[in-house]
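>> Question from a student workshop board

For tomorrow's exercise we were told to take the sequence and the ligand below, predict the bound structure, and bring the output to class. My setup keeps failing. Could a helper post the expected result so I can at least see what it should look like? The ligand is iron/sulfur cluster.
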Amino acid sequence: MNKRNIHISLNEAKSSAGSLKGLDIQVGKIKGEFWDEKEGPTPFPDHIDLRNWDRTLLARYKPLYLPFCDLCCLCTYGKCDLSGGKRGACGIGMEAQQSRIVLLAACIGAATHTSHGRHLVTHLIGKYGRRTPINVGGSNVDVEAPVIRLVCGIKPKTLSDLETVLDYLESQLTELLATAHTGQESDPIDFESKVFHAGMLDHVALELADMAQISVFDFPKADPDAELVKLGLGTIDSKKPVILVIGHNVPPAVDIIRYSQKHDLSDKIEVTGICCTAIDLTRQDPHAKIVGPISWQLRYIRSGVPDVIVVDEQCVRADLLIEAGNVSAPLIATSSKNCAGLVDRTLDNPDDIISDLVSGKVPGVLILDPDKVGEIAVRTAVLVKETRRTKKVSFIPTDQELIELAKRCGGCMECTRACPNETPIPEAMKSAALGNFVSLAEIYDSCIGCGRCEDVCNKDIPIHNTLVAAARKKVISEQFFVRAGRGAIQDIEIREVGGPIVLGEIPGVVAFVGCANFPKGVSEVAEMAREFAKRRYICVASGCSAMAIGMYKNEDGQTPYEEYHGRFEAGGIVNVGSCVSNAHISGAAIKIASIFAKRNLRGNYEEIADYVYNRVGAVGVAWGAMSQKAAAIASGFWRLGIPVIVGPHGAKYRRMLMGRKDNEEDWYVYDTRTGEKVYVGPVPEHLFITAETKEEAMVLIAKLCMRPNDTSRGRSMKLTHYIDLYKRLYGIMPDDIHLYIRSSADIPITMKEEILPIITEKGQSDQIIPDPTLLTSQIRKRNGAK
Amino acid sequence: MADQDPWIRSEMGGTKQAHVISKPEIMVAMLKKSRRSLVIIGNETISGGKRTETLIKLILKLQNTYHTPVLSTAHIFGKLIAHGIKPDANLGSMEITGRLCDPQWKGLDGNGQYDLIFVAGFSYTLLSLLLSGLKQGAPDTKVISLDPKYHPHATWSYPNMKPDAWQAEIDRFISLFSPDNM
Ligand code: SF4
Ligand code: SF4
Ligand code: SF4
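>> Workshop helper replied:
Here is what the output should look like for this input. Compare the format with yours to find the bug.
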């Protein structure tokens, strides 16, 4: 634990020997380095420091609450019925209660990343020392920590500096969590503002965690040409001993790689991964393989291929010990956050542990030392491979077995009623019973691998296994590439695209992020990313969405990562890395303000968020967002003024933040040059919204990239994409074009004939393009005075 | 398939559950009583098969007989035109839900809020949330779910029904349409 016994802070001291400015000393460390950038108003901000900014955004983007049920059941006064305007025993109303739930989700998410960051930093300091320098991209990345600079007002130089940041995050998150206690916060908008605060903290935690691991491990360092790595069940050589790692905290997986390298076993074993540990594993070793997103857990384990399963933390299935036991694969848990009921063997002799695992004496062990996990996982995999040869380890039925299983189906529909995607399993079973597996194989594509269907089947059909069996050919052909997570965006890349983005000439930055709770399978994310890369937007990706993009091939057999480059420029598909790498996306937006617009970042959150909101046409798409972490990540984007679109399951976050384009009075900004209020139209129209279909999402992406600062050339390009997509996907002209056309110069030339009559009918007058801000503090000239 | 079980069993509504539409006369009576009604149809309206055929037929009749405005969500506007329906407006499902929860909203035609909403053509979980949003945010608005799956958060909902039975119910509803019933 970081100790701060003495803390001396001097703003300015003068003596005959010279002068000192901004000195900040803590025993054992010097916080940050000398930094001549002027400190902004809110270094290490509390929620209150940014509350006005939040309320400004929330006045435009009002929450719409979608409760799961009428009740609150958070304390023993309850359950309380909050429906129809009723209040709970504590006095809370439904809106505040729902925003409280959103806050809890955001706090869980941010705490998870913070705790992940704390674990990483503590582990890496223990192994490499406090003074280990931060290095995310060498001389290519001067602004190494845009989020931390912006929020905390420090420039971290060593791993030790990150401890100061962690202290801040932990104290803030504790306070936020406390506000969700019964009888604390009562106002929904204040809850929402705290959600934003949790989100902002989350991005600090993300940046911190990824910086730490990039600095120490052999990850690509802001490399646009990071290697292509293999992805998919079909890429794995099951004849070798196979290790599967699942989760998000990569040190144990790194030590598996290192142990196998040291013992000359790299070519003799397969190290495979699911979820973000897989992404980070391949950043360390491009020869490791990614199986797929989180939804691939059951199908991969039940295929019998992995010989040893190593789990760390976050988004790991809670029934893995059972699943692993069914296929005689030992389970090694490696995180105190997920002990899985296993005995802690961290201090035991490795030979004893391996013997117990190989003989099956214990189904798994908890080992909290990554080095030791490396050794035990590799040695166990080699030995257990042999013992598993004599056992039944695959539960994927043969074709004949599949027919027999399908014949059991009584058509009760319970599986469909339990399936989050309402897949038509009973009908498919009917055909499968007759030997036709086409429909079942189609369900495989949209199946998120949850296993809920099996639990309700009163005929005990292992439904998920039947889907995998029916899709056998597809499974084998899952052989794709994804570009290894590159980490940060280089300063020079930002310098080159900053202008075109802010002026609107690169039509937008679209970030495909988040989990794999997709309504119709992985392919929709790839389709969206390709569409926007083709249109020369900058597409960025992370986590399971980055994998989903890779699981697609064009007519030439190329994956999107082969088809499109990995540079942060128009027409790229840029995989930044794992969940924690999402900070490089918000970081890129922040860096535009710093590197291109020369704004001070240091503790200057509000001004930079206002800059990003009004100028940087960026949109997040979390098509399969599932987790509380995804909620926190989205919240961090909102506070920075970046809209997020989620898929239909994202509605279960139970709150949207939407603008009203029909309320003209909501869409005024100040012109910083004059202080006058100027109507700029509903741009961006929403901050958080669920789209029903990928078509709707694509139209929303194009629309939500518009910003008040767009030049006419930029706006006309953005409108071209919006109108073109709308016409193609909706089959009609959009009915709101006039709201986005400020003067005839905004009208796309090729669409002039179509648009002019609409504008004439709606009666559009010329509007000026202001230097936009929502903040009175940014007005340079007021009432004619400087 | 008990009538009042939510189709996805975990989507229980809470203390106030939708009334089951036991006979179409109920809906006709509500239509008669309503000052301002609106039909909202989601992307699954055009998912094909019996569901599409049935919903298209119903919506056409509603439009023709009662001139009930129709709003489509998602991207289906053009496809509805191909089916002979010209919706009066298109908005995202969240956008229209938000507007219906705003007492100040002027409606699609500027004449004010709606008091009766028919919804159909959505995935179960999404509609469940939209209905819950309306139940809490627009408590005075009556919301009728026309999909063949029981939705506790609606004011009135069909029970869980097999496609043929549902189609027959919708046909019975349509058979009651007449200008006299306005
Ligand atoms: S927190 Fe309030 S509303 Fe919730 S159960 Fe307790 S008293 Fe009831
Ligand atoms: S495992 Fe697949 S098919 Fe079964 S309920 Fe989950 S998503 Fe549906
Ligand atoms: S739950 Fe089982 S028996 Fe019932 S329809 Fe589904 S597969 Fe068939």
